[in-house]
Amino acid sequence: MSEPVLEVRDLCTSFTTRRGKLTAVDGVDLELHAGQTLCMVGESGCGKSVSALSILRLLPEPPARIERGQVLFEGHDLLRASPEALRTVRGNRIAMIFQEPMTSLNPVFRIGVQIEEAIRVHRDLGRTERQARVLELLELVGIPEPRARMRDYPHQLSGGMRQRVMIAMALANDPAVLIADEPTTALDVTIQAQILELIDSLKRRFGMAVLFITHDLGVVAETGQRVAVLYAGRVVESGSVEQIFAAPRHPYTRGLLDSLPSQRVRPGQPLHVIGGRVPDLAPRPKGCSFRERCSRALERCAVDDPVLEPTPAGSAVACHNPVPVPGARQ
Amino acid sequence: MSEPLLQVRGLSKSFEVSGGLGRRARLQAVAEVDLELAAGETLGLVGESGCGKSTLARLILRLIEPDAGEIRFEGRDVRALSRAELRTLRRRMQIVFQDPFASLNPRMTVGEIVGEGLLVHRLASGAELEKRVAELLDTVGLSPDQAARYPHEFSGGQRQRIGIARALALEPRLVVADEPVSSLDVSIQAQILNLLLELQQRFGLAYLFISHDLRVVRHLSRRVAVMYLGRVVENAPAERLYEHPQHPYTQALLSAVPVPEPGAGRRRIVLSGDVPSPLDPPSGCPFHPRCPKAIERCSVERPRLREVAPSHFSACHLAPF
């Protein structure tokens, strides 16, 4: 495979809380490739948003603290970059969109002005050139009558249109990487379908690397090429979308897939349930953090922390007793 | 077939809202809705934000007063009831809300929340109340000794269990569940869905199950009604609706749901544009501006809900497909 555009190595982010230090992200590795979407999937609190925000150093420090790790991008380690260097990367070479476009847009400025601002900060263009670029961007993301919409305030647009504006703003400076943090979670399914399609077509057209954060396995299957499944601040399984869905090796991934109402479960029949709940991470329990909810747990899981190891199929799993591959001999 | 538990005919509600710049406008939230629900069964109600599904639920419970239409519950005309009669009736119809954080009073203990209905209706007090609350908590999978705790001490899934225990306290026959699992993680969602199914079997509950998640609705419902801009556009047995949708909106909605199977190779019908404003609904069929199949007639004449296959209703001029 080609060289990754962005590489996260052993990222570890903690927060100072009243109950002590909480390690929200604990040794996450990720690789983003041009023209590919990596989906980061997991339930609330698994560390997926914190990982993404750490990449761009967008967390308030303190209470957050990046304990260790590297974020390698275009020859630099972003975790060691100066504030000035970071500013030239953010919203420029690496752009980010969020779940709730209403809170990410400034309500008192026209959307045209806000997109223009994103261009002005990073590029030395004249006013007319900037405005031409704004128009081009709004057309690119499929906003009808862009010339009129430029003059709208965020509240005059629907949720789907606001997310398009956010995407236009993110694309303003031709980013190499787009980080999308649950960008369709607040949208209705028919609008979600439009936005997913849009992100996918832009990714292909501009060869961006996309880091797509979601809790919806359906969205993963439709938009991702690669997946990283997070649990309690760690990647527990990663691989191609086909591998993870066809033959999940980590019991947590298996459980997540089985707990979805799908064609495989008859309506009205009980769904598979992952018992218990996510452990408290302040402090992190010893051993595998999934073991108390795991039906395949061994004695070893209580003492020995599993690390992400490659499987023969080319994926990676952090488990001492992974789910066997269907059809394979034990 | 025996008389349905709940029968709704021509139910409508509009609200006056500010149209901006001091203008007043009327928003037709629910228009001429007909529904039926048999005892012990589940009717799923799906649609996107603003389609009127939550308003419809509140109209049925008379938490909001309808403008027109008829609601019959256990054969009685709900709209004709006096306040006192309505209060008695409410014991038989309960609601579970979406947000388990906003729907539980943070100043009350779990025991007080679950037991409040029993106290208000003077059905239990003292030691008997305590015993009943303990039973209810046990029924929904919580430990009875958690009764003295406050809602903030519980996770989202546990709070939803508390909300369900509260709804069950008065032994209802109908539970309106308004997006009960939408704010929960998948692993917790499965737990709550299983609980709802188990309680239905055990107590013969009927559910009006409202959700925007079509997968979840399919799993629970015997029949499903699809709403668009305040109207029911399709109503059919669940299997029929999912396998042979007879309204272009339902077809688009089903095709838009992301399926957790990579390369499922489906053709997604991506609708153009947004849902039109309910303040200014389109002429004719409310769906025609976004409909890939619309013909001229659709912009002039509003299609009525009609039976296009046995027990399968669609409000589309072109159905059956």
List the helices and strands and how they pair.
The complex is a heterodimer of chains A (330) and B (321).
Chain A: E1 6-17, E2 20-32, E3 37-41, H1 48-55, E4 64-73, E5 76-77, H2 83-89, E6 94-97, H3 101-104, H4 111-122, H5 127-140, H6 146-149, H7 159-171, E7 177-181, H8 189-206, E8 209-214, H9 217-223, E9 226-231, E10 234-240, H10 241-246, H11 251-258, E11 309-310, E12 316-317
Chain B: E1 6-20, E2 23-37, E3 42-46, H1 53-60, E4 68-73, E5 76-77, H2 83-90, E6 93-96, H3 110-120, H4 126-139, H5 156-168, E7 174-178, H6 186-203, E8 206-211, H7 214-220, E9 223-228, E10 231-237, H8 238-243, H9 248-256, H10 296-300, E11 306-309, E12 312-314
Parallel strand pairs in B: 3-8, 3-9, 6-7, 7-8
Antiparallel strand pairs in B: 1-2, 1-4, 4-5, 9-10, 10-12, 11-12
Helix pairs in contact in B: 3-4, 3-5, 4-5
Task: Name some characteristics of this structure.
heterodimer, A: 330 residues, alpha/beta, eight-stranded mixed beta sheet, 31% helix, globular, B: eight-stranded mixed beta sheet
Question: Could you explain the architecture of this structure?
Answer:
The complex is a heterodimer of chains A (330) and B (321). Chain A has 330 residues and is an alpha/beta fold. Chain A contains eleven helices and twelve strands. In chain A, the strands form two sheets. In chain A, strands 6-7-8-3-9-10-12-11 form an eight-stranded mixed β-sheet, sandwiched between helices. A four-stranded antiparallel β-sheet of chain A has the order 2-1-4-5. In chain A, a hairpin with a 5-residue loop joins strand 11 (309-310) and strand 12 (316-317). In chain A, helix 7 packs parallel to helix 8. The longest helix of chain A has 18 residues, at 189-206. The mean pLDDT of chain A is 88. Chain B has 321 residues and is an alpha/beta fold. In chain B, 31% of the residues lie in helices and 24% in strands. Chain B is built from ten helices and twelve strands. In chain B, strands 6-7-8-3-9-10-12-11 form an eight-stranded mixed β-sheet, sandwiched between helices. In chain B, strands 2-1-4-5 form a four-stranded antiparallel β-sheet. In chain B, helix 3 packs across helix 4 (126-139) and helix 3 runs parallel beside helix 5 (156-168). The model of chain B has no long low-confidence stretch (mean pLDDT 90). The interface between A and B is large, with 43 and 43 residues.
